[in-house]
Amino acid sequence: MPSGKILVAQGGGPTAVINQSLVGVALEARRFRSVERVYGARHGVRGIINEDFDDLTQETSHNLELVANTPSSALGSTRDKPDAKYCHEIFEVLRAHEIEHFFYIGGNDSADTTRIVSLEAQRAGYPLRCIHIPKTIDNDLVGNDHTPGFPSAARFVAQAFAGANLDNASLPGVYVGVVMGRHAGFLTAASALGKKFPDDGPHLIYVPERTFAIEQFLHDVKQTYERFGRCVIAVSEGIHDASGAPMASLLAKDIERDEHGNLQLSGNGALADLLCEEIKSKLGIKRVRGDTFGYLQRSFIGCVSDVDQREAREVGEKAVQFAMWGRRDGSVAIRRTGFYSVDYELLALDDVAGKTRVMEDEFIAASGTDITDAFRLYLRPLLGSGMPDAFRLRPNPVPKVRNAAR
Amino acid sequence: MPSGKILVAQGGGPTAVINQSLVGVALEARRFRSVERVYGARHGVRGIINEDFDDLTQETSHNLELVANTPSSALGSTRDKPDAKYCHEIFEVLRAHEIEHFFYIGGNDSADTTRIVSLEAQRAGYPLRCIHIPKTIDNDLVGNDHTPGFPSAARFVAQAFAGANLDNASLPGVYVGVVMGRHAGFLTAASALGKKFPDDGPHLIYVPERTFAIEQFLHDVKQTYERFGRCVIAVSEGIHDASGAPMASLLAKDIERDEHGNLQLSGNGALADLLCEEIKSKLGIKRVRGDTFGYLQRSFIGCVSDVDQREAREVGEKAVQFAMWGRRDGSVAIRRTGFYSVDYELLALDDVAGKTRVMEDEFIAASGTDITDAFRLYLRPLLGSGMPDAFRLRPNPVPKVRNAAR
Where does Mg(2+) bind (chains A, B) (predicted)? Predict the structure, then answer.
């Protein structure tokens, strides 16, 4: 009979729905007679070391529901990556509190943290059930149809490009929007879901799954600009040259890395500015504007997919069920079972942790600068209900009187 | 008896609700028996020169309503500033089409365009009724309580900072968000409406109404960071030093100006990047992130104030009424009559055109880095209904067992 206490924490970058998973764990756990307390660690695994726990059992269900609908990590987050020593400190604290269930909500790196903690617990003989709960706006967890957090971020990106396209049509020029995504282009590709009419932007989409060459880029932009009199471009922050070096890293003075070895690509506008400068100077186009979506795309309050909310809640609930009724550690994964429905399964931590999914070839058009209908069909149901829509005046041109010959 | 045709056009940067005003004109005009046709000029005054008119009378009311709810300028926009020669070309086209009513939806520069066209028409003896319809996200038109477009952009900025604050609380550091606003800090100040709890960001707000000094800025950031362990900062793109030189212009290689002489401040991330570099290098804070809200804040689809929508519709309707029942040219203005209600009046074009309103002193805190309750009370009703809200876990700390002494 395990102890009556369980622990939940959140790691990595926040999403719009990560608190749904937290609340899913908190509320589902209390339905098990064996669970007496649900503790939350503040700022991920670091909160365990610091013994910084909040007792979620003392929360009201009303406030938990309000928190579930609030973006970003309510418990705080961390990018700490534990080693064996760190893990032993973790176990000492868990032992002192008689905690034998650990739920970690996060992306690849948090899955890896869960794997390390699970492995070290076995080595140390500490009886700990470890379950990783998926979230990442990058959608780059292997074994998942998609990951909670991605649909809401994708919705933001699609809405942002729908608006940027309208803006660009009104005052024509070139617009470059830089979207998050280190290795996987899913979020950048979501920009295409903002298109409605055949001449709508984004006209060009650059993802990290294809090699980026500035000459080809300028050629593409020139051709598009000549055709439409304007050009809207979606670029992933992770685009890289043939050697694999990210374009963003060629620009940054000091390249910052986190503890998982990831380059810091977000949080500055250098990539958009570089691309705009190239377009201005090499193509001689005057009106060139660049936006870097930055943190807006993952934490904007008020742009969320209801499908994403429900699924993020469910992965939290299922994590508790897998832990309480199952016999092994693992990572909860989303499997698509219909158009549109999903089910959940528990994958081995080794099969998920530290691995990176990228966009499947069938999702990227042969041109390398567009996405396919397969991707549209894949993403559309995830965006949820009530997507705002753009409409145009229907053409009713007035016959010219004075300038009839022009 | 004037001709049966009226002309409407849109100028300057688009907003989320500028099409409400367009549709307000189109639908209201047809209620007048004297109006037979409502023409729209494509891309502002330039569309008149090009004789590029669309007959809005042939639109369905259903599609007009859908367009009204679509952000950005449905007719397209321009930054052209007409001179006497340009105006004479305008009158030739208008004469050929027997158009004697001109409605121009736009900000300061478009008000000035309307003033110039009105003046030149009088000089040329062309019988033209000219009405300027206000819109600008900058909220810098004199004589108006506020301008259509500002409330929706303000809502975007408030929501963006509400989310950025949550993100920053989750992974603490410094966050700099750069907001549009050349001379007026209204939109940057709107960031404060995203605050809920006393320790929420933005902790510091820099508007163009106060002189910006980098040393004082670094001092403010250091103090805030020491107090809260993090710091969220809202900065207007128009901040300038004591000489009046915009910080952004000190950075740009080629300074672009539009035809109205305005410096191009948006469309790159240079200002945010500069401020972040300063904080990193001078204060030694590691996690420093900058976002430039850019075009998202004025054209994001799906973030709109319903109050703004209704008022933008009304200024269009009132413009037609003033034109048909009045005897003079002018600029429609919003006057606040209660908490919360408004009425509309027609100001002389000379009293609005080319003038710039900035934030009243009573709206800016004595510190110069915060806003007052007077501003909160001013802005809150404009943001409309259904503002998303952020909630926190209530503190229920678990007593420490192992680290009790720490």
Answer: 108
| CATH architecture label of A5-148+303-352 | 3-Layer(aba) Sandwich (3.40)
Substitution target in A75, A89, A93, A296 with the highest count of B β-carbons within 10 Å is: A296
- pLDDT at residue B248, as a whole number: 80
In what order do the strands lie in the sheet containing B204-206?
B204-206, B231-236, B174-179, B288-292
Rounded-to-integer distance, Cα B132 and Cα B344, Å: 13
CA distances from B261 to B80, B209, B257, B354 (A): 11, 20, 5, 11
- At the top level of CATH, the class of A151-302+359-383 is alpha beta
Nearest to B340, CA basis, from B274, B384, B276, B296 = B384
Same-fold call for B5-148+303-352 versus B152-302+359-383 = yes
Decide if A399 touches B, using CB distance below 8 A: no
Longest dimension (CA), chain B: 90
**Dihedral of CA A116/A118/A123/A126: which sign?**
positive
CB–CB of B276 and A268 under 8 A? yes
| CA distances, B279 to each of A376, B209, B214, B215, B233 (Å) | 42, 23, 10, 10, 12
Q: What is the ipTM of this complex?
A: 0.95
The ranges assigned to domains in chain B are: 5-148+303-352, 152-302+359-383
Kindly indicate the confidence band of residue A252, based on its pLDDT and cuts at 50, 70 and 90: low
How confident is the model over B164-191, as pLDDT tens digits? 999 999 999 999 999 999 899 999 999 9
- Least CB-CB distance to A53: which of B290, B389, B398? B398
Residue A182 gets which letter from DSSP? S
pLDDT at residue A255 above 80? no
Q: Check whether A253 has a pLDDT greater than 60.
A: no
Which whole number is the average pLDDT over A250-268?
A: 65
8 A C-beta contact, residue A64 and residue A25: no
- Phi first, then psi: give them for residue A133, nearest 5 degrees: -110, 125
Chain segment A149-191, per-residue pLDDT in tens = 999 999 999 999 999 999 999 999 999 999 999 899 999 999 9
What band does B406 get if pLDDT is binned at 50, 70 and 90? Answer: very low
Report B:336-395 residues touching A (Cβ under 8 A).
387-395
The CATH classification number of B152-302+359-383 equals: 3.40.50.460
Those residues whose C-beta lies under 8 Å from the C-beta of residue A172, and which sit 6 or more positions away, are: A229, A230, A287
Chain A residues with beta carbon closer than 8 angstroms to that of B302: 159, 303, 387-388
Indicate the SS3 state at residue B229.
coil
pLDDT at A406: 47
Average confidence (pLDDT) over B268-277: 90
- pLDDT over threshold 70, residue A11: yes
**Nearest chain B residue to A253, by CA:** B277
Preceding amide of A202 cis, omega within 30? yes
Active site residue A138: yes
Cis peptide before A340 (omega within 30 of 0): yes
- Spatial contact of B374 and B362, defined as CB atoms under 8 Å apart: yes
- Whether the ω angle into residue B340 lies within 30 degrees of 0, i.e. cis, is yes
CA distance to partner chain B, nearest, from residue A35 (Å): 16
